[in-house]
């Protein structure tokens, strides 16, 4: 079967990324003779197929089993994993929230459940870069919601990029609840996306307290990008 022009272009891009282990956007524009917008769309398609991992300036090849191994799943696929444990984590996190707090929730199934647990709180502000968390809180009358803006990653619903960064740099956050893809003493708290790691790091820099929230399935697993070292957070909330 003949490939379409788009398939041929993505095949060429994947071969370059696989051969070198990584490639920049400018390299991929050159070898495919494509615009930056086309290359970015193609990288998104390759990432959704679990073939590459996007970075700030391009992409790296996803070797899958070489990382001890926190595989990236879409939000919908993760919702049912350790659900009872995540609900306990969310309930415990909600007890830390006080009237007047500015709370940050990054994307993830555990932080989504924290948002649900905060819906009856009064006079708090929730800052998030996750569109599904913002949507969950739309009818919470006592909660002011601030959304960072940016470009959405489809797997996580998280907003990333320069627009998000410019908003976060102006915020002052009381308590941050950090969702992660992996936890280990060696690599700290990790995530699959360099772009999401960058956003989380900016949130951390603007937060007085940072709590990592994760269920036991994340223990001793490492995703590709470290967000913060293991001892860099105020505390952890887990279901152990």
From TrEMBL:
MF term (GO), any: DNA binding
Alphabetized SUPFAM superfamilies for the sequence: NagB/RpiA/CoA transferase-like, Winged helix' DNA-binding domain
Coiled-coil segments: none
Domain HTH deoR-type: 6-61
Keyword entries, A-Z: DNA-binding, Transcription, Transcription regulation
Pfam families named among the record's database cross-references: DeoRC, HTH_DeoR
Keyword DNA-binding: yes
Highest taxon of the lineage: Bacteria
Family matches, as PANTHER family: AGA OPERON TRANSCRIPTIONAL REPRESSOR-RELATED (PTHR30363:SF44), HTH-TYPE TRANSCRIPTIONAL REGULATOR SRLR-RELATED (PTHR30363)
Listed name of the protein: DeoR/GlpR transcriptional regulator
Native species: Paenibacillus albus
Species lineage: Bacteria, Bacillati, Bacillota, Bacilli, Bacillales
């Amino acid at each position: 079967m003949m490939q379409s022009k788009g398939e041929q272009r993505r095949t060429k891009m994947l071969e370059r990324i696989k051969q070198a282990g990584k490639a920049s956007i400018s390299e991929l524009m050159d070898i495919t003779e494509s615009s930056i917008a086309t290359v970015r769309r193609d990288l998104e398609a390759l990432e959704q197929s679990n073939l590459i991992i996007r970075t700030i300036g391009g992409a790296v090849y996803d070797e899958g089993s070489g990382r001890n191994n926190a595989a990236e799943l879409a939000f919908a696929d993760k919702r049912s994993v350790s659900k009872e444990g995540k609900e306990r984590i969310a309930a415990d996190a909600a007890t830390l929230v006080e009237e007047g707090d500015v709370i940050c929730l990054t994307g993830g199934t555990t932080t989504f459940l924290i948002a649900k647990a905060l819906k009856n709180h009064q006079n708090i502000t929730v800052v998030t870069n996750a569109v599904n968390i913002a949507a969950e809180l739309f009818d919470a009358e006592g909660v002011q919601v601030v959304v960072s803006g940016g470009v959405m990653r489809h797997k996580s619903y998280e907003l990333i990029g320069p627009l998000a960064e410019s908003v976060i740099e102006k915020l002052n956050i009381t308590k941050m609840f950090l969702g992660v893809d992996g936890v280990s003493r060696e690599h700290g708290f990790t995530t699959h996306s360099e772009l999401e790691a960058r956003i989380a790091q900016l949130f951390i820099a603007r937060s007085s307290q940072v709590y990592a929230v994760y269920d036991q399935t994340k223990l001793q697993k490492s995703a590709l990008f470290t967000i913060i070292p293991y001892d860099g957070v105020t505390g952890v909330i887990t279901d152990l």
